[in-house]
């Protein structure tokens, strides 16, 4: 009953659609069904951007609906990234889509950036200078090692957000051995790792206070004490930046 | 040759012993276990006996347990770009 009234109240409130809400980049993941809005003038006229795309002046696409939305829509092509090993990272070679080419300089021009980096499938929202205590002890690293975080679902700034595409991998892009197994593949897709640089330095290892758990058995006076003291790796985000288009194309 | 990919979604606890026997014959011992069998009439009959408990898909190639584990394991998301020991060695060698 209560939930029904709440739902009705929400319907009656007549909220504007999400694309009309301010201060939030509205981003689609797949395809470009909605016309992107023109770029705000201060960003368009900044010399910083025109320096980055000298040969390709931005032409705002034809917009049929007018709105006061400040942010742009960026899409990420849904290309399955090859799995990297711990030592040799993968380098995707798919060409950048036009929306990325248009909007990446805008994202790059607006600092600071944030990133949702995924470590072992778990998301961590980070910015430069953050200290991150991982919930596990990272194997095989020493204090001072520099890690590259290369899996991110979101890279953004205040007004712009680059989101990863939908994870549905097309059957044609799968290797031959995995035909028919697409439904058990990973559900998460990631932003193209050429577009950003995220470096973290290993600060050290932190330990929690010793925990003592008393274990008892029935009809026995003896109480066993189980001790545990877990260790956690501490990282610090040393560098987080979005690459320029020249850099990205220079990698390929 | 096509294969059936059979996953046990519901346990056979409380069901007649014959159903449990069919699951045992298919090699399904616990929930969410996945086995591959070639597409034949007798396997199809076995699946029909336990069709309420399993999820079936037809695939081209069977996967080993290791391959299935690898497919559902998420990416580490990092790699070691520079080791502190290497930096120290460079500094001392200079």
From TrEMBL, chain A:
Region (Disordered): 34-97
Biased composition (Polar residues): 47-66
Compositionally biased tracts (Low complexity): 67-97
GO CC entries: mitochondrial large ribosomal subunit
Highest rank taxon of the organism: Eukaryota
GO MF term list: structural constituent of ribosome
Family from the record: Belongs to the bacterial ribosomal protein bL21 family.
The protein, known as: Large ribosomal subunit protein bL21m
Organism: Coniosporium apollinis (strain CBS 100218)
TrEMBL record, chain B:
Gene3D superfamilies, A to Z: Ribosomal protein L30, ferredoxin-like fold domain (3.30.1390.20)
Gene Ontology biological process: translation
SUPFAM superfamilies the record matches: Ribosomal protein L30p/L7e (SSF55129)
One cellular component term from this protein's GO annotations in UniProt: mitochondrion
InterPro entries per the UniProt record, alphabetical: Ribo_uL30_ferredoxin-like_sf, Ribosomal_uL30_bac-type, Ribosomal_uL30_ferredoxin-like
Keyword entries, A-Z: Mitochondrion, Ribonucleoprotein, Ribosomal protein
GO terms for MF: structural constituent of ribosome
UniProt keyword Ribosomal protein, yes or no: yes
Subcellular location: Mitochondrion
Domain Large ribosomal subunit protein uL30-like ferredoxin-like fold: 4-54
Family (UniProt): Belongs to the universal ribosomal protein uL30 family.
Role this protein plays: Component of the mitochondrial ribosome (mitoribosome), a dedicated translation machinery responsible for the synthesis of mitochondrial genome-encoded proteins, including at least some of the essential transmembrane subunits of the mitochondrial respiratory chain. The mitoribosomes are attached to the mitochondrial inner membrane and translation products are cotranslationally integrated into the membrane.
NCBIfam families in the record: rpmD_bact
Name of the protein in question: Large ribosomal subunit protein uL30m
Organism phylogeny: Eukaryota, Fungi, Dikarya, Ascomycota, Pezizomycotina
